[in-house]
Amino acid sequence: MKYQVILVLNATKNRKYYYSYAESSDVVMGNITTDDLPPYQDINKARACYWENGQWVYDPEEYDHILEQNALALKPGLISKSKADLQEYIANHPLLSYAKHLEGRYYTVTQDKQQQLTSKLALYTMAAQMGQPYQLTWNDTGNECEPWEFEELSRLAAEMDAYITPLVSAQQRYEVQIKNATTKAEMDAVTLDYSAVHV
To answer: Is the pTM above the cut of 0.85?
Structure first.
């Protein structure tokens, strides 16, 4: 079967590099067999080849450039993963608090739990301003809700914030560093370890 090859012009080097082959008429060169394609199974190496004087010429600098661009294209995925990893870390690492019980108990600090706690404290404050009774309740991990005093629950809320804020800040620093990276080496140098935040 005969194929037609799509080439992409690199204006900086004034060379036409291999991109792909297809059964298409909108191409630069055509009517070749698969044996005439760049002699590389690695698509990145194939795309580092340019057509000159009737033959493929491999350009190692272009290969390095392609690898750099491929790495930089991973930025959005790395950032999304860091956010997902943060939520997983928070879900799997509850907060040890002594706000109510002297022996200390563990409390879930996911975003949903933070929002629920903030809502309860706000409702209690509103009810107090209106002179209405409002029973505060909360639960530690794995147990049912029990009555809490406002001061106890306020302390737990403050502890949650102190626990979560450094973790969020670590993710944000990572995100900024990844966004600002201009090379693969710079990206590889950026690390994120949530377990080290509270050490």
So the answer is: no
